[in-house]
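Course assignment 3, question 2. Fill in each field.
Student: A.L.
Task: Predict the tertiary structure for the chain below.
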Amino acid sequence: MGDINTRECAQSSESERRLNNIDLTLRDFGARIGEVETKTVVYNEQIKMILNTLQEIKVGLKELQKTVDDLEKRPADLSQKIFIGVLTSIITALLMLGLKLLQ
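Answer field:
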C-alpha cells in the first residue's frame, strides 16, 4: 500500500510540474501574441503614414510637372512675342518709309 501511495504521489507531483510548465508556456505565448498584436498596430499606422506621404509626394510631383511644363512653354511664348514685335516693327518701318516716299 505504501508503495502505491508513493507512486501516486510521484505521478501527481510529475503531473503538477507538467501543468506548471504548460501554464508558463501559455503565459509566454500570450505575452508574445500581445507583442505581435501591438507591433502590428504600430506597423499598420506606419504604413498608413508612408502611404499618405507617398500620396503627398505624388501630388507635389504633379504640381511640379505642371510648373515645368509652364516654364517650358513660356520661352516659346516669349520668343513668339518677340518675333511678332520685331515683325510688327519692320512692317511699321516699311509703311512709314513708303508713306514718306509717297509725299
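Instructor remarks: The two ends are 151 Å apart (CA to CA). Residues 34 and 40 are 10 Å apart (CA to CA).
Grade: pending
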